[in-house]
Amino acid sequence: MSQTVIRLVVGLGNPGAEYVDTRHNAGFWWVDALAHDLKCELRPETKFHGQAGKARSGDGEVWLLQPMTYMNRSGHAVAAIARFYKILPEEILVVHDELDLLPGESKLKQGGSHAGHNGLRDIQAMLGSPNFWRLRIGIGHPRTLGLNQPVADFVLHRPRQPEQPQIDDAIARTLNAWKWLSQGDFAKATMTINTKPKSKPTTADKSA
């Protein structure tokens, strides 16, 4: 029996200049960074409803995809490319923003519920399966961060300082797990991704 490896990486977000720097586009940021590392150019692919590109990775190939359908219709793009290349749900990694994790935190898991995330909901419906992998990039929750702001408004705004550097650090750290994901070693990938970042010392700590 052949080992399962990731053949499709999907970053979730919304198209358009007004959304580029918003929290809901954390998945786009991650795929942009992976594309840079793999020297993969993302181009408009009408039949896949998004920006897509193919790269060599390890001993095989991987497709990278950013749906241009808006978040709540992400599944249309994912299902289109998965059907065309006969990619199974277990071979798909979806990278998305996560309200239940603080900025700087990340988690890798397979399957489970969509937990109210519109992008995951549509992907699960269009694939007819929840068994794809999810890389959750923490953006925090307005209540956790002490903000009196509706969730729908929160995710469509830019991260505050110092949240952006924390999210950027999480993206850089989790990209180190790609070598394991591309080889199908999900145990090592999980260990790399799920390890909580060490808190950086404050000015007071440094002077103590």
From TrEMBL:
SUPFAM superfamilies: Peptidyl-tRNA hydrolase-like (SSF53178). The record marks N14 as: Discriminates between blocked and unblocked aminoacyl-tRNA. It is found in: Cytoplasm. The record marks D97 as: Stabilizes the basic form of H active site to accept a proton. TRNA binds at Y19, Y70, N72, N118. Monomer. Belongs to the PTH family. Keywords: Cytoplasm, Hydrolase, RNA-binding, tRNA-binding. One of its GO terms (molecular function) is peptidyl-tRNA hydrolase activity. It catalyses: an N-acyl-L-alpha-aminoacyl-tRNA + H2O = an N-acyl-L-amino acid + a tRNA + H(+). HAMAP family: Pept_tRNA_hydro_bact. InterPro entries: Pept_tRNA_hydro (IPR001328), Pept_tRNA_hydro_CS (IPR018171), Pept_tRNA_hydro_sf (IPR036416). The active site is at H24. This is Peptidyl-tRNA hydrolase. It comes from Parachitinimonas caeni. The keyword RNA-binding applies. Its EC number is 3.1.1.29. CDD domains: PTH. Catalyzes the release of premature peptidyl moieties from peptidyl-tRNA molecules trapped in stalled 50S ribosomal subunits, and thus maintains levels of free tRNAs and 50S ribosomes. It comes from the Bacteria.
